[in-house]
Amino acid sequence: MAIKDNLAHWEAEDFGTNLIELTLGDLLDQRAAEMPEKEALVYNYPEFGLNLRLNFREYRDTVNRLAKGLMALGVQKGENVAVWATNVPEWVFLELALAKIGAVIVTVNTNYRQHEIEYVLKQGDITTLFLIEEFRGNSYLQSVYNIVPELQRISDPVNETLQSEALPKLKRVVLIGNDAKPGVMLFSQVMVLADQVSDEELAVRQASVSPHDVAMMQYTSGTTGFPKGVMLTHFSLVNQGHVSTGRGALGEHERYVTAMPFFHIAGSLGGVIYCIYLGATLIPLIYFDPLKYLQLFAEERGTFTFAVPTMLIAMLNHPRFAEFDLTPLRSLFTGATPVPVIVMEQVKEKMGADCSIVFGMTETTGAVTQSFHTDDFELKAATVGLPQPHTAIKIINPETGDIVPCGQSGELCSKAFSNMVGYYNMPEKTAETIDEDGWLHSGDLAVMRPDGYINIVGRVKDMIIRGGENIYPAEIEAFLMRHPDIAEAQIIGLPDQLMGEEVCAFIKCSPGATVIEEDLITYCKANMARHKVPRYVRVVEAFPLTASGKVQKFVLRDRMIQELGLGEVANLRTA
To answer: What is the CATH number of domain 9-18+228-459?
Structure first.
């Protein structure tokens, strides 16, 4: 027992697990040497003409070739390279090839629109952008052309670098696809460049990479409304895979089917890196589709998955669910949003899989707490597990900073190998999140039981979690208030049976102006990522205020819950 004096402070324990000093590139090389013929990566998409099956030797060789192509292209150690794409094979290869040469992969949400990608490219000092042409009617390439029109004037993108006043750090754009477009290289051309770099040169570059170098940067929004680049190291990524798969009792036999997006920590780590660490087979979906998910489980004999509750609900409720043999499916991880008990029950009954709960955030390289695979159903349903190995957790009074007694709610703070290095080029924001003693403040309200198991009861901040995606009201409010007809905007989260929460916007119009609710939703859809678009819009003349002039968002929320008849859903989520 790691708790003393009945205070909600779990002192770090190793649980018999040692941390390892290893880079992602070296980890891949180890697996290729140990199990060269073992199936490593499968893309079963005949409908797209994609049937890729690589063993670990072929996997490594493909990554090495791309790594050499990136070196020939001029990508230097420490450079930030962004990837804006669905879960295509090139995404996986880029994650590992960039790690081998000491560059940093910057993951980009596939829902981003023009103003959002422009912010990432500028704030993140991106030197190279890899992208697909479009997704769900959102033209990525056209957005980039709009931001840097100079790109289309490049006649030889292989040898000519971009010169842009808007984005002075951006040197090149690479298209993942087969059709040539003005000013951009093709991914295949980068692979051809590999012939200019020797295996020895790659080995020297790879040897220069330290496990404590930054390997990945993921953008997450903040209460200021400005996304922040979370910097994660090889060490934190490799060891998170090490401890999470260990507690989950996963092994090299896993055939891991996943639709978690690679731009998310649960995809890039919980999919790609988990499988390399285990020596397991990764079977990704290019994007979430419940029918395709079920088909891959059946056709590929999937044994494991990591899925947010909305994905599980969509599969369970699919009209063709009963057609598919899910017998091999043994277990799954779920989290990223509150997991309804009824979903866990249905997964066990209808899919035959046992759920394990993980809780964490991007800033903690994913999980800080996790269920044991041997925990009983009631324990998994009531808590988010115990702190992970080598992870200290305390629950504090947000006002005083004092550790609260067990059973009392407060802000969850963690200190672990998995804590981020910080936010890219945001030292003040980093200091607000990680205090001078190294404790990372999550903003989540939690309760620690006397046995150390933790329950999440709310949030200090007013973050909304919709289908596993973190949504921060301040960002949407700032966007809406740029609209000429809007004087003030307030965003709240409302309970939703399927998505966990939905976004609701309260609008106060500018003098003499009117706002049509449907028109505003259309405006949002055209200008921001779809998961941030309000489902509900209400125009009001005034907001309820505290004596100090602060908007009482809880009053707005209560009003809407009553108006929409969501009381039963709200009670289920807080029970």
So the answer is: 3.40.50.12780
